[in-house]
From TrEMBL:
PANTHER family: INTEGRAL MEMBRANE TRANSPORT PROTEIN-RELATED, MAJOR FACILITATOR SUPERFAMILY (MFS) PROFILE DOMAIN-CONTAINING PROTEIN. The chain crosses the membrane at residues 57-79, 103-125, 131-149, 169-191, 197-218, 251-272, 284-308, 315-337, 343-361, 381-402, 408-429. PROSITE patterns: MFS. It comes from the Bacteria. Keywords: Membrane, Transmembrane, Transmembrane helix. This is MFS transporter. Residues 200-434 form the Major facilitator superfamily (MFS) profile domain.
């Protein structure tokens, strides 16, 4: 297996990239081919799990099917995203105590799988408000475990994979997930009673198994021991790291840029809501959007990953511009020719382009922060930026909810403007791949 991994790795990268191990430990360099494929498989499996339990598509449909209050649907995306981001300063202080940090990722993945399976069980056994609050409560625990994986994964990636290969690793794992997500969407179309609770529960159970298999693969990553400074008095040490936002101009600039680039994630539920307003079949909309997100990831992630290895800054710029222009096009259609939304291909096409752009934003900023930092600094950068972004996400979620009283187009227009500002901020960031 080791020789097979070496051969495949050599075929995927040119000789210069395959041997470029200047930024990782020499002993870790020998394990790069095997680690590369273990991490790709692990990340790909969890991304599939994320897709089949999507809080923008699948979980809202599940809550609707069990008769949960509509107000709970609005909590799904903020809880899932902010819940994994806000606690990361404390989580990072805890993770820093361990010289080998892959086990934090393994534990987080096992917990996420358990939470997703428990959601399926709750939906089968409970109904109405009780079912809704049970699922939301489990989503809180899921998000905390997701934050543990987020902190650990970037540090393990920085220790085991050389800089010229990190963007493509993220891209190919997303592409792998996209291929399976397409199948999940097609499968939803083929079910006769698509709005029945058990269909969504089966998707969640499938996702739970994927998280556990991913944990098994990730446990096989050959990670060498790293620094453990700051492990004692973890929370105190973590809070002191907030000073980085004052002292480190480059990190501060990146965090502001990333805050503006949240437009791609925050706008997605409003496009789904817009589509549901022009479709009488909730399950058909759910199935088509699940399949569309898979196709978009499959096609775009390898391109964004390759592009990010050359310039993750340019990836963020391009993806932000696409997000902003797409929103402006949708607002224009709504104003001048709203009947076009009734076409069976327009809104699915819009969501397809948005998913491609969001994939670029996500891959670009993940690659940028890993390449920007070095050594133990990487854990601090990730935890500080993610914690602040969590609060920004909650604030922006509240603002968009307030803006929605004037209509979906107002929200989409404002988020498009933020996307343009994000592109300008990203343009001023320094290159980190050189």
């Amino acid at each position: 297996m080791h020789k097979l991994a070496d051969d495949l790795h050599q075929k995927l990268f040119n000789e210069e990239d395959a041997r470029a191990c200047k930024d990782i430990d020499g002993s870790a360099c020998r394990e790069v081919p095997g680690n590369f494929f273990r991490i790709i498989v692990s990340q790909g499996l969890t991304k599939i799990g994320d897709a089949v339990s999507n809080p923008k598509i699948v979980l809202p449909a599940l809550l609707t099917a069990v008769g949960a209050p509509l107000a709970l649907i609005g909590l799904l995306v903020p809880i899932r995203e902010a819940g994994s981001l806000v606690p990361q300063l404390g989580i990072a202080g805890y993770v820093r105590q361990f010289a080998v940090r892959k086990w934090a990722w393994v534990a987080g993945s096992v917990i996420q799988g358990a939470c997703i399976l428990a959601m399926a069980i709750a939906a089968l056994l409970l109904t109405g408000q009780v079912a809704g609050w049970s699922i939301v409560g489990l989503l809180v625990v899921f998000s905390l475990a997701r934050g543990l994986c987020s902190v650990a994964s970037k540090d393990v990636l920085g220790k085991t994979i050389p800089k010229p290969q990190r963007g493509r690793l993220n891209g190919w794992s997303s592409s792998l997930a996209g291929a399976v997500t397409i199948a999940a969407g097609v499968g939803l179309f083929s079910v006769s009673d698509q709005q029945h609770v058990w269909v969504y529960c089966a998707l969640l159970a499938f996702g739970a198994v994927l998280w556990w298999i991913a944990a098994a693969f990730y446990s096989q990553v050959d990670e060498y021991e790293g620094a453990t400074e700051g492990g004692a008095n973890a929370l105190t040490h973590a809070l002191s790291k907030l000073r980085l936002l004052v002292d480190d101009r480059r990190l501060r600039h990146f965090v502001i840029t990333r805050s503006l680039l949240l437009c791609s994630a925050l706008s997605a539920p409003y496009y789904v809501l817009l589509a549901s307003q022009h479709s009488q079949a909730l399950a058909i909309t759910t199935a088509s959007f699940v399949a569309i997100s898979g196709i978009a990831s499959l096609l775009s992630a390898p391109f964004w990953g390759l592009f990010a290895d050359r310039s993750s800054r340019q990836v963020m710029i391009m993806a932000a511009v696409v997000t902003a222009l797409l929103g402006l096009v949708v607002v224009s259609i709504s104003h001048w020719y709203p009947a076009l939304f009734s076409s069976p291909w327009v809104l699915p096409g819009v969501y397809f382009v948005l998913t491609i752009a969001h994939e670029g934003v996500r891959l670009g900023r993940k690659t940028y922060i890993v390449n920007m930092a070095e050594g133990n600094q990487r854990t601090d950068y990730v935890s500080v930026s993610n914690t602040l972004i969590g609060f920004v996400l909650l604030f922006m979620g509240g603002v968009t909810a307030w803006l929605s009283q004037w209509g979906l187009m107002v929200v989409i227009a404002v988020l498009s403007a933020l996307g343009l500002l994000g592109a300008l901020m990203a343009r001023a960031l320094p290159e980190v791949e050189r």
